[in-house]
User: Fold these one by one.
Assistant:
Number 1:
Amino acid sequence: VNFQSTEFAFDFNRILTLKFATLLTDFGLSDYYVGAMKGALLSVCPRAIVIDLTHETPPFDVETGAFLLLASYAVFPPATVHVAVVDPGVGSERRAILAATRSYFFVAPDNGLLSYIFEREAAQLRVYHVTNENYFRREVSATFHGRDIFAPVAGALLNGAAPEEIGAPIDDYIKLPALAPTRIDERTFLARILHIDRFGNCVTNITRRELCVDEMAGARLHIGAREIRRFQTHFAAAQGDEVFAYWGSAGFLEIGIFGASAAERLGVERNREVRLICHR
Amino acid sequence: VNFQSTEFAFDFNRILTLKFATLLTDFGLSDYYVGAMKGALLSVCPRAIVIDLTHETPPFDVETGAFLLLASYAVFPPATVHVAVVDPGVGSERRAILAATRSYFFVAPDNGLLSYIFEREAAQLRVYHVTNENYFRREVSATFHGRDIFAPVAGALLNGAAPEEIGAPIDDYIKLPALAPTRIDERTFLARILHIDRFGNCVTNITRRELCVDEMAGARLHIGAREIRRFQTHFAAAQGDEVFAYWGSAGFLEIGIFGASAAERLGVERNREVRLICHR
Amino acid sequence: VNFQSTEFAFDFNRILTLKFATLLTDFGLSDYYVGAMKGALLSVCPRAIVIDLTHETPPFDVETGAFLLLASYAVFPPATVHVAVVDPGVGSERRAILAATRSYFFVAPDNGLLSYIFEREAAQLRVYHVTNENYFRREVSATFHGRDIFAPVAGALLNGAAPEEIGAPIDDYIKLPALAPTRIDERTFLARILHIDRFGNCVTNITRRELCVDEMAGARLHIGAREIRRFQTHFAAAQGDEVFAYWGSAGFLEIGIFGASAAERLGVERNREVRLICHR
């Protein structure tokens, strides 16, 4: 086989190079929005393999979108392009941005949606203002940049466009309040509920860094009037319907009940304050 | 490389030709129906790339399915096969049809689901009655033609079957009432709400053709006792919680509120009458 | 073309061999769980084509998961790897298992989720205890084996790993109560509602084997105080809003109403007892 044949080599490489994109939006699944984004992306890069992270981010909830992206982006193959669209400011002066980290690209509105990626990937991060209209759909609506800008730009990146071709580097992109809990005193952290999952498990923003120990020995959580001291490694280890803390799969401390909703039992909603008191 | 080698050329072409199919149904996502359709399609055409438009069309709601298909089909790469199944008449004498336009194939029950495609693509449209059982699953149930007829026929089209092999041309296919608003007098159109999206935005059937102007200057909308005169280019331009009209991403005039549900605020449901009064 | 070239032949085969995986879970679509499973699978086997069966299995409902898998697995191309995760025991001593049938692989927790596959595929079935950590993610959490064990093992199978490399054969895997109705006397079977679908149709566990006849001639169903004698081949054949039985697309007798929810009308929930009385 003569790999020097230009025509052949070109096609062969295109076949062998897989092109992954993920989509995270607040579009829901009952409209045409997600399908249209995929169509727009595939029209630019037909070989793209598009995977849904979720489209059920609560409408306009940038923080939940930021958390869900943080919790899943790193499990994808290198060179994946992550497209995130929770975008109440669509059509306004808010910028579209592109972030490049060691292993991934991210395309999103500049409204904080990539904040936790910025924190986690600070060591090797470049952010660009997406401005090159050659990479947009021919007609750009003022209400659906997911289809008209973000998806086509993701397709262009998968096709090999360099970030520098898409826009100029910036460093004044918007950041949400920091993800980590705030230290109040030697023993106390002010934390919060980042997310409540389908099962009613409550994901806090507490990591092993705050807790110092692996299994919460001596530590306790306060949510409202409730104190939680129990820790379990997994759900089925729980005694009856006790409320307990455990390490969740995204690396954060979570609060759960085996076979029931902790959020309902505790009457907790997203963003609720949690105090972590470490006994050392 | 000798591209004349029959065996090689054949496989190589199969690799290089991408085969897109989309699915739009009212099956929801909590049953096995969508998965089974994909399995049936992939069993016929393993190289198909299958994209969901939506499966949350309200049960039996042919008009909403027709709108959602209209709003998204044209963003897909040429040669995509669109499969649409909202099919209360499954198993009865209602026909299965196949429509070929300049750029796409459509497979659906003959119940009006493709009506708006017929309107939009009237210039280059051929419709066929799907009858050739060689392209169906071996056993055809009377209750799930999505799996047993529509998906396999889509797979056959992706494999290169000609429409003429699948059935005979027809021109008495079923059409829904026309999509466009009705002109009542020189200044007034009788329009309606086509769809209410996840965010509560109300999509009307009014296009630039009726409005004549780009930004509704002087025109107004009447929904029940409510009058809407405000127009915005995008959501974030709105003042507070005003109700305003804007051009939606499917090319229709929509009614929205920034960060809230216009449908809830106005107490509007799908199919509600809207009067457009143009001041000229 | 020299197909003996090792490098070329290798890549070419990889291109031509399609690798299908399906996912069935109770994770819902509003969290990062399904996306993360796909990322983990694609990181092991980038060429995998991943299809969702459903992720809306009711939380922890192993029986419904088992039914939905039974109803759809056989429509997929041979060599598909089906991954099923309804897993309240995650992190505990419950085993992970792998089942190999004539045409498919199945990866799941050992909690009965594959029971109906075991029944249906009993003739050619081997089951393995998944233990080889070389095929797991580097760090295995105690709360998300879908991402850390089941998806990577599926990827390994798609890459060509033999079941024997993944674990040792076992035959003491867990089974749910048998799927088939119980015979009470010459004429009576005790059956149950396996599933209620999106439309409110009630799927029983009655098959043609119990009914003996094709159209329920003379037979009747009792649900609570209600008796059902009507049989229809398809929905649109029904008279008005009568409740009728029909053969559903999964091979079971179902109970429905044309254009309305039989489950609501009958006040029936999953697992409700149904008596089948055959008049012969």
Number 2:
Amino acid sequence: VQTENLTLMTDFYQLTMMQGYYQNNLADKKAVFDLFCRVNPMGGGYMICAGIEQAVRYIENLRVSEQDAEYLRSLGVFDPNFLNELKNIRFTGEIYAIPEGSVMFAAEPVLRVKARLIEAQFVETALLNIINHQSLIATKAARVCYAAGQDAVLEFGLRRAQGPDAGIYGARAAIIGGCNATSNCLAGRMFGAAIKGTHGHSWVMAFDDEYTAFKAYADSFKDSLTLLADTYDTLKSGVPNAIKIFKEKREKDELPEHYGIRLDSGDLAYLSKKARKMLDDAGFENATITASGDLDEYLIQTLKLQGAKIDIWGVGTNLITSLDCPSLGGVYKLSAIETSDGDFRPKLKLSDNPDKITTPGVKKIYRFYDKETGKIKADLISLEDETFREDRDLTIFDPKATWRKMPLKANTYTIRDLLEPVILNGKTVFKPKTLSELREYCRAELDSLWDEYKRLINPHILPVDLSLKLFNLKEKLMNA
Amino acid sequence: VQTENLTLMTDFYQLTMMQGYYQNNLADKKAVFDLFCRVNPMGGGYMICAGIEQAVRYIENLRVSEQDAEYLRSLGVFDPNFLNELKNIRFTGEIYAIPEGSVMFAAEPVLRVKARLIEAQFVETALLNIINHQSLIATKAARVCYAAGQDAVLEFGLRRAQGPDAGIYGARAAIIGGCNATSNCLAGRMFGAAIKGTHGHSWVMAFDDEYTAFKAYADSFKDSLTLLADTYDTLKSGVPNAIKIFKEKREKDELPEHYGIRLDSGDLAYLSKKARKMLDDAGFENATITASGDLDEYLIQTLKLQGAKIDIWGVGTNLITSLDCPSLGGVYKLSAIETSDGDFRPKLKLSDNPDKITTPGVKKIYRFYDKETGKIKADLISLEDETFREDRDLTIFDPKATWRKMPLKANTYTIRDLLEPVILNGKTVFKPKTLSELREYCRAELDSLWDEYKRLINPHILPVDLSLKLFNLKEKLMNA
């Protein structure tokens, strides 16, 4: 939980490089870095941007404390002049970001940082950590919620998260990505997230028998009643005992509006169908069935295909850790550096692996929507000084296969400039949104993608093209 | 970073259950919970215990603030009397733990919590979160270091960790598990972890050419010099430029004791062998080759088998997120509850899945070592009141296959009582160790395991047996 200042949460080599820049009179040169992912994670077709608010707060709080400086001094590798400089460093540059909750794609800069080289280098590691984590979990949550369709999804992963922050900020990201609520009370308090939960196995075990435990629970909570049915035997004991309680409550006209059972083990398709029939036969058609236990988007999709009668999905470990892809491969690469005459010289990192070659220059992202459907047609990365007009014909092309062209007819599309300023001249211009606003925004963003791009496996890939000017610049530098 | 109080970092259902216990006069009943894993992770044969110190600190700080209580009140589901009770809750019970850095196995209680039911329930989620995370990463690190043999392993994962805590406490756990150092400066400051790092690609790109960048770096850092060789072309540019710098420094007698190159992309076996030859041919046999880039225990083992000439392994994403197994499945289960006459009644949770049936009673873990070799022969879980003597013959047996017996001959073995008190009557008796003490202790612990148990894939499984008395108790309750 980030009330401690995270300024020192950086890789050691950032500090050695910073000292080197300082000693080589490069510290004040302005530099531009892009934070981006090289591939969409989980074999999917998109990502959800998350963590922008925490990234901004981190930047605002960037400040080497006396204690930090003392620690660095004790390492014996830093020059006292540099350490003095370090104590005075604040972030004075600018950051543009893709708005939190947006759909985004590989190769697009989520953050574009322009600052003194020494500052831009300082913030690399923490920005990557924050954006990689939250965007990963928001993306996973969007996939899980896509699989669940209209059903509610609850985030239950705190106990298996990779430490406190992973649980807390993971819950935040999961709700941005579409989850209805979390079990994590601290995320509730910190972000206003909706929180949910009823009781666990220990409740049932703390009483002499299951019926007594259910009855005590029902008597304690009048507004909402979900009984965990699998402590002893789901169909022989748990569901019948739950039905007994529901009947007693119905007789006294005390059955709450929201009531039902939760299944946490066994075969969820089989058990939910059997339990549904038992509940319906007893006249409890409104009772909900919540399921939990090793769920993820793939299992939810399969269970639904098999006709599982599950209304609410409690998703824990596999969401909060993003089991099949536990990291987003975000990188932070230099794309331009100030020249002695104050211009920016575009920079490119070569690699034997073509996917690892960076795209040079100070860049923007334009998103093209079909005017009629409102769906995204393509994204285009351009240089900062390029503009495009909706009333002109435009043909864009795939930079990896230049014969793959997409013609855009004048007045059939709309254009959106995706990067927004969040920090200018070191001052925050970012306007935070509430978590429920972010969730609503994200839902609308996902609606702007055709289903084909949201398929869990082997989706259609949205074109992320380069403008002709940027393509030519990259070609020139690659062949230089 | 846990300076904020984590008391509210709990699943909502813990609070509803607590209110239920309070209203049903069960809150003050003493209960015993075991925190344990059902399987060893990553297909391996053991785990490393980590996170005990943070778990103890969390317990010490357990305290519902006015702000927390106000938030809970705002939810409208809690009774004011319960909220008053909650504000006064402190942890007054006892916790026994496996010492941090120990080798441990599935089914063994890492923590045994005995406390008022309301307190024991309160701390479940956070204890699981902390122990699951750090033990996972310590275990992964032990595997990576096992694969690396005598070579140094550096933890480089901060930028891909699942949030700040995952990076910070993950670095701590990685060092307990055997890593030599981390790149994470905050982990250095907080825990005294050794920190390492030199420069990245952006350093090279900030200069007009690679040679100039290397030279500037070498001039800035006199004590240690590792040059990143893959920004443009490893064998045609990076290694020759590094050799040029090393020669210049050697001529001036300024070559530091620790110097070398780092490879971060391309085929590490091929490139390291070629680079080694180039360095050796130039007379730099002492130059080290550090490798990084998507490494894990499996890749390290394969690269070594193929004769890669790598001296130092920088392991990032796949260690800090435990790629192939990003969570430890630790659970927290009620094993006994106080009766009206003050005794403890053992409790058992049944399940259709035999591996999910819990082991009842207040338990201890005894570890049996071979007297001659000092290696672990077996662990035995017994009831708390059972003792064993080293001068007696003893036969233990596998509870899942009772015909599999292990005879232990008197005076050929030593016995260790593995669980140690960390909190008694709400007071901390835990004695923290430094990170380097924990790392040394863990190394000795790993030495007490034969190699067969440490094989990365399909290892031999160490017996974790139940005492006859405990076995009979479990059988009785299962058939009750």
